């Protein structure tokens, strides 16, 4: 008997701060199985972190830290000239902040997923990837590390015997080398829910995604990301969940074997 397919559906949440409200966290949570909570550097603040942790626990959604670069104005999506040592320190700092709120609310930190520019930089930079993986290993070695499928971050996690979850994107396009199309490009985003759902099914069922160059590339889909700050985030989450369920694909947090 074939083992039924299952996949995690994650969303970046807790990205409001101060007087600014970003995303529809309480509405999206019923459709996802794990959440990546901003830790105050690119977005989020202490009150938002606490409330988002509480919401995740209410909805039985796995909680992850979402550390980013210290760039509120750029929402953590601008590259910065940071050293591996700086990345190590800032990731430990942010994991520790969220883990304190999780512990205070009686929960467990499930995973860590870097945000934005830090995520993309670590996908191709070995030293930055190793700094992030080392930070997770030192603080919470049983936590999963979410990273771009097949990237240097996944390889760094494997070298430290961390559980790595290969992440794919429902609303982003891919280049032939497996990286995401730059947000500066007009074809970086998928705005049609049906097209996004088709890409998700191809990745989950066949382990492939079509690049912008028109060729299929191999990809492993352990977890699917939906951006919580996107204008169609709620519609995407609902549509993708329904599509996966219709295809008999279970939604569950990643169960990835240690390397």
UniProtKB/TrEMBL annotation:
GO terms for molecular function: 5-oxoprolinase (ATP-hydrolyzing) activity; ATP binding. Signal peptide: none annotated. InterPro entries: Glyco_hydro/deAcase_b/a-brl, LamB/YcsF/PxpA-like. Its EC number is 3.5.2.9. The keyword Zinc does not apply. Keywords: ATP-binding, Hydrolase, Nucleotide-binding. GO terms for biological process: carbohydrate metabolic process. Transmembrane segments: none annotated. Pfam families: LamB_YcsF (PF03746). It catalyses: 5-oxo-L-proline + ATP + 2 H2O = L-glutamate + ADP + phosphate + H(+). Forms a complex composed of PxpA, PxpB and PxpC. Catalyzes the cleavage of 5-oxoproline to form L-glutamate coupled to the hydrolysis of ATP to ADP and inorganic phosphate. Belongs to the LamB/PxpA family. This is 5-oxoprolinase subunit A. It comes from Pontibacter lucknowensis.
């Amino acid at each position: 008997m074939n083992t039924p397919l299952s996949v995690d559906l994650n969303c970046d949440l807790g990205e409001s701060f101060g007087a600014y409200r970003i995303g529809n966290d309480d509405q999206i949570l019923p459709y996802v199985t794990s959440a990546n909570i901003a830790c105050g550097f690119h977005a989020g603040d202490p009150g938002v972190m606490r409330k988002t942790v509480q919401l995740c626990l209410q909805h039985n959604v796995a909680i992850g830290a979402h550390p980013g670069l210290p760039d509120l104005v750029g929402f953590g999506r601008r590259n910065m000239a940071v050293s591996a040592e700086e990345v190590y320190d800032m990731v430990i700092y942010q994991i520790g902040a969220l883990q304190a709120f999780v512990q205070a609310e009686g929960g467990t930190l499930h995973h860590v997923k870097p945000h934005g520019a830090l995520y993309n930089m670590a996908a191709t930079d070995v030293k930055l990837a190793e700094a992030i993986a080392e930070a997770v290993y030192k603080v919470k070695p049983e936590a999963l590390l979410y990273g771009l499928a097949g990237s240097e971050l996944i390889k760094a996690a494997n070298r430290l015997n961390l559980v790595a979850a290969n992440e794919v994107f429902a609303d982003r396009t891919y280049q032939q080398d497996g990286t995401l199309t730059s947000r500066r490009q007009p074809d970086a985003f998928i705005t049609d829910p049906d097209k996004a759902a088709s890409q998700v099914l191809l990745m989950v069922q066949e382990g492939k995604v079509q690049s912008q160059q028109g060729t299929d590339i191999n990809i492993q889909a352990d977890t699917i990301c939906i951006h919580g700050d996107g204008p169609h985030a709620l519609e995407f989450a609902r549509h993708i969940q329904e599509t996966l369920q219709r295809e008999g694909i279970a939604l569950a947090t990643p169960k990835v074997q240690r390397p």
